[in-house]
Write a structure and sequence with these properties.
Length: about 180
Protein backbone atom coordinates (compact mmCIF):
# COMPACT_ATOMS: atom_id res chain seq x y z
CA UNK A 1 0.00 0.00 0.00
CA UNK A 2 1.27 3.44 -0.86
CA UNK A 3 2.47 5.11 2.37
CA UNK A 4 0.93 8.46 1.32
CA UNK A 5 -2.55 6.97 0.98
CA UNK A 6 -2.53 5.28 4.40
CA UNK A 7 -4.90 6.72 7.00
CA UNK A 8 -4.05 6.54 10.69
CA UNK A 9 -6.66 7.27 13.38
CA UNK A 10 -6.29 7.18 17.16
CA UNK A 11 -9.59 7.08 19.05
CA UNK A 12 -10.30 7.42 22.76
CA UNK A 13 -13.81 6.98 24.10
CA UNK A 14 -13.81 6.95 27.90
CA UNK A 15 -11.50 4.13 28.94
CA UNK A 16 -11.55 2.49 25.51
CA UNK A 17 -8.75 3.31 23.10
CA UNK A 18 -8.18 2.14 19.55
CA UNK A 19 -5.77 2.78 16.69
CA UNK A 20 -6.78 2.20 13.10
CA UNK A 21 -4.46 2.20 10.09
CA UNK A 22 -5.00 1.36 6.44
CA UNK A 23 -6.82 2.70 3.44
CA UNK A 24 -9.86 4.92 3.98
CA UNK A 25 -12.36 2.07 3.52
CA UNK A 26 -10.57 -0.23 5.97
CA UNK A 27 -10.30 2.50 8.61
CA UNK A 28 -13.95 3.49 8.17
CA UNK A 29 -15.08 -0.11 8.53
CA UNK A 30 -12.93 -0.65 11.65
CA UNK A 31 -14.09 2.68 13.11
CA UNK A 32 -17.78 1.83 12.60
CA UNK A 33 -17.21 -1.65 14.06
CA UNK A 34 -15.51 -0.11 17.12
CA UNK A 35 -18.36 2.35 17.66
CA UNK A 36 -21.05 -0.32 17.32
CA UNK A 37 -19.20 -2.43 19.89
CA UNK A 38 -19.11 0.52 22.29
CA UNK A 39 -22.66 1.71 21.53
CA UNK A 40 -24.83 -1.14 20.22
CA UNK A 41 -27.62 1.26 19.12
CA UNK A 42 -25.22 2.50 16.44
CA UNK A 43 -25.56 -0.91 14.75
CA UNK A 44 -28.34 0.57 12.62
CA UNK A 45 -25.74 2.91 11.09
CA UNK A 46 -23.58 -0.07 10.21
CA UNK A 47 -26.55 -1.68 8.46
CA UNK A 48 -27.23 1.55 6.59
CA UNK A 49 -23.73 2.00 5.14
CA UNK A 50 -22.72 -0.12 2.18
CA UNK A 51 -19.02 -0.83 2.33
CA UNK A 52 -17.93 -3.56 -0.11
CA UNK A 53 -16.54 -6.56 1.77
CA UNK A 54 -13.55 -7.63 -0.33
CA UNK A 55 -13.34 -11.14 1.12
CA UNK A 56 -17.05 -11.72 0.53
CA UNK A 57 -16.78 -10.36 -3.02
CA UNK A 58 -13.75 -12.58 -3.67
CA UNK A 59 -15.66 -15.64 -2.42
CA UNK A 60 -18.59 -14.81 -4.72
CA UNK A 61 -16.24 -14.55 -7.70
CA UNK A 62 -14.78 -18.03 -7.19
CA UNK A 63 -15.63 -20.09 -10.27
CA UNK A 64 -16.44 -16.95 -12.27
CA UNK A 65 -13.13 -15.06 -12.32
CA UNK A 66 -9.48 -15.83 -11.77
CA UNK A 67 -7.07 -13.02 -10.96
CA UNK A 68 -3.72 -13.15 -12.75
CA UNK A 69 -0.83 -10.70 -12.89
CA UNK A 70 -2.13 -9.71 -16.35
CA UNK A 71 -5.64 -9.03 -15.07
CA UNK A 72 -8.88 -10.89 -14.48
CA UNK A 73 -9.85 -13.92 -16.56
CA UNK A 74 -13.49 -14.92 -16.85
CA UNK A 75 -13.73 -18.62 -16.09
CA UNK A 76 -17.44 -19.09 -16.57
CA UNK A 77 -18.79 -17.39 -19.70
CA UNK A 78 -21.65 -19.80 -20.41
CA UNK A 79 -24.65 -17.80 -21.57
CA UNK A 80 -23.31 -14.65 -19.86
CA UNK A 81 -24.57 -11.48 -21.49
CA UNK A 82 -22.05 -8.83 -22.58
CA UNK A 83 -23.40 -6.59 -19.81
CA UNK A 84 -22.86 -9.21 -17.10
CA UNK A 85 -19.46 -10.19 -18.49
CA UNK A 86 -18.26 -6.55 -18.43
CA UNK A 87 -19.48 -6.08 -14.85
CA UNK A 88 -17.95 -9.36 -13.62
CA UNK A 89 -14.63 -8.54 -15.33
CA UNK A 90 -14.60 -5.09 -13.72
CA UNK A 91 -15.49 -6.58 -10.34
CA UNK A 92 -12.55 -8.96 -10.79
CA UNK A 93 -10.29 -5.97 -11.49
CA UNK A 94 -11.66 -4.17 -8.40
CA UNK A 95 -11.14 -7.17 -6.10
CA UNK A 96 -7.72 -7.94 -7.62
CA UNK A 97 -6.64 -4.35 -6.98
CA UNK A 98 -7.95 -4.34 -3.40
CA UNK A 99 -6.15 -7.63 -2.71
CA UNK A 100 -2.93 -6.07 -4.02
CA UNK A 101 -2.71 -8.45 -7.00
CA UNK A 102 -3.45 -5.83 -9.68
CA UNK A 103 -2.02 -2.33 -9.96
CA UNK A 104 -5.35 -0.78 -10.99
CA UNK A 105 -9.08 -1.43 -10.78
CA UNK A 106 -9.83 -0.22 -14.30
CA UNK A 107 -9.96 -1.93 -17.69
CA UNK A 108 -9.78 -0.51 -21.20
CA UNK A 109 -12.41 -1.33 -23.82
CA UNK A 110 -9.91 -3.60 -25.59
CA UNK A 111 -9.13 -5.36 -22.27
CA UNK A 112 -12.87 -5.85 -21.73
CA UNK A 113 -13.29 -7.31 -25.21
CA UNK A 114 -10.36 -9.69 -24.68
CA UNK A 115 -11.42 -10.77 -21.17
CA UNK A 116 -15.10 -11.24 -22.01
CA UNK A 117 -14.41 -12.74 -25.45
CA UNK A 118 -17.08 -10.40 -26.82
CA UNK A 119 -16.63 -8.38 -29.98
CA UNK A 120 -15.15 -4.91 -29.48
CA UNK A 121 -18.29 -3.47 -31.14
CA UNK A 122 -20.48 -5.30 -28.60
CA UNK A 123 -18.44 -3.83 -25.75
CA UNK A 124 -18.59 -0.37 -27.38
CA UNK A 125 -22.38 -0.66 -27.52
CA UNK A 126 -22.81 -1.91 -23.94
CA UNK A 127 -20.40 0.41 -22.09
CA UNK A 128 -22.34 3.69 -22.68
CA UNK A 129 -25.52 2.07 -21.34
CA UNK A 130 -23.70 1.02 -18.17
CA UNK A 131 -22.24 4.53 -17.79
CA UNK A 132 -25.69 6.13 -18.21
CA UNK A 133 -27.12 3.81 -15.55
CA UNK A 134 -24.31 4.73 -13.13
CA UNK A 135 -22.98 1.16 -13.02
CA UNK A 136 -19.55 2.03 -14.42
CA UNK A 137 -17.61 5.23 -14.95
CA UNK A 138 -15.00 6.33 -17.45
CA UNK A 139 -11.66 7.44 -16.04
CA UNK A 140 -9.55 10.26 -17.42
CA UNK A 141 -7.31 7.60 -18.99
CA UNK A 142 -10.24 6.29 -21.06
CA UNK A 143 -10.63 3.12 -19.01
CA UNK A 144 -13.67 1.95 -17.06
CA UNK A 145 -14.32 0.94 -13.49
CA UNK A 146 -17.31 -0.05 -11.41
CA UNK A 147 -19.00 2.61 -9.31
CA UNK A 148 -20.13 1.70 -5.77
CA UNK A 149 -23.62 1.17 -7.23
CA UNK A 150 -22.05 -1.08 -9.87
CA UNK A 151 -20.19 -3.08 -7.24
CA UNK A 152 -23.43 -3.56 -5.30
CA UNK A 153 -25.48 -4.56 -8.34
CA UNK A 154 -22.77 -6.91 -9.63
CA UNK A 155 -22.46 -8.46 -6.18
CA UNK A 156 -26.21 -9.13 -6.25
CA UNK A 157 -25.85 -10.72 -9.70
CA UNK A 158 -23.14 -13.09 -8.47
CA UNK A 159 -25.44 -14.46 -5.77
CA UNK A 160 -28.42 -15.04 -8.07
CA UNK A 161 -29.01 -18.56 -9.28
CA UNK A 162 -28.72 -18.95 -13.06
CA UNK A 163 -32.08 -19.16 -14.79
CA UNK A 164 -32.96 -22.61 -16.01
CA UNK A 165 -33.74 -22.73 -19.70
CA UNK A 166 -36.51 -25.16 -20.48
CA UNK A 167 -35.93 -27.34 -23.46
CA UNK A 168 -38.98 -28.21 -25.57
CA UNK A 169 -37.84 -31.86 -25.70
CA UNK A 170 -37.67 -31.91 -21.90
CA UNK A 171 -41.25 -30.59 -21.63
CA UNK A 172 -42.58 -33.18 -24.05
CA UNK A 173 -40.86 -36.04 -22.25
CA UNK A 174 -42.35 -34.94 -18.94
CA UNK A 175 -45.81 -34.21 -20.32
CA UNK A 176 -46.20 -37.74 -21.67
Amino acid sequence: MNEQRKLRVHLELGEAKADFEGDVNQVLEAFVHFLTEMHPNLEIINKLIYNPDILSLAAKLVGKVEITAEGPILVSRDEMSARDAVCIALLGAYVGNKLGKLSKDTLSPSDLAKITEKARKTISNEVPKLVTEGIIERTTEGEYKLTILGIRKTEEKTTQKPKMHTNSCYKKANEV
